[in-house]
Amino acid sequence: MWQGVRHTGRGVGYCGLVKNVGHRLVRPGGDVNLGVLSYYYDPIPKNCVADWVCPASTGRGYPRYAKSPWGEYGYYNLAVFYGGCSLDCLFCQNWQHREYPSRPKLVSVKELEEAMHNRVTCICFFGGDPAPQTIHALLVAKKATEKGVRVCWETSGQLAPHLLDKVVEMSLKTGGIVKFDLKAFTPSVYKALTDGEVDIALRNFKVAARRFRERSEVPLVVASILLVPGYVDEMEIDLLTKFIARIEPEIPTRFLAFHPDYMLRDLPPTSIRHAETAVKIAKENGLVEVSIGNWWLLGDYY
């Protein structure tokens, strides 16, 4: 809930999960045992930010962290989509999460535990963002570790430091990955795109990344950068990739193509040239493992 209760002028926190009622913070739906979320089974190999380095799709970490050295075909990821987020991104490509708190579907830790049947090899918390409901996710993650299921996260990194330590530890033990969405480096650009504070995200990324070498078989941390035209330009890419490389040059970094959505429908999708330039800059700055994700969205747009 940290960083998710900033005043919006409507008596509702940015996360959408907390209301100011008579100067008291109230959660209309959801608590540590009941999450505001939906979930589904995602067949492996799946379209994941880290799919080119994860055990599920590649077999990395076999036999300790993967069922097969060639990937886990025939198995499933339990995808847990949390409602609510600590940011208000103009380009949000999962903006439907905002509707969850107003008519919450509450899912217990027990229900998600039972959903992890013997063909589920990993669980991924995303959204929205799991950050405002981290405690619920950690309780589910504990059940996953008991079942031998990998624990992964997709987050902007806007969460409390003491919870971050637990998030990283869960992934470290199980062969999972913490995927940080680094939206920008410059405070003004980050603020314009997300209405959030970049220092929190960068600090938490640095803390998590410092544990990168504690596990050699599977990368513990992966960075993703959405190439928003006109905002995440060559300067932002240069600053972000230098920041990552200074911490740990072997952190896998994936560039993602933007497509018009939510409040940024007036921008074009990411161009091929933009993506290729991003990869070139990242490699020149010392990053070893660089990839373009949803390349099929790229085109000659600018």
Explain the overall architecture.
There is one protein chain. The protein is 28% helix and 20% strand. The strands form two sheets. The chain has a nine-stranded mixed β-sheet. The protein has one domain: Alpha-Beta Barrel (TIM Barrel), CATH 3.20.20. The chain has 302 residues and is α/β, with parallel strands linked by helices. The longest helix is centred in the middle third of the chain and has 14 residues, at 161-174. Helix 7 (234-247) runs parallel beside helix 8. It is globular. [4Fe-4S] cluster binds at residues 85, 89, 92. Keywords: 4Fe-4S, Iron, Iron-sulfur, Metal-binding, S-adenosyl-L-methionine. This is Radical SAM domain protein. Its cofactor is [4Fe-4S] cluster. Pfam families: Radical_SAM (PF04055).
What would the keywords be for this entry?
two-stranded antiparallel sheet, globular, 11 strands, nine-stranded mixed beta sheet, 302 residues, TIM Barrel, iron-sulfur, alpha/beta, metal-binding
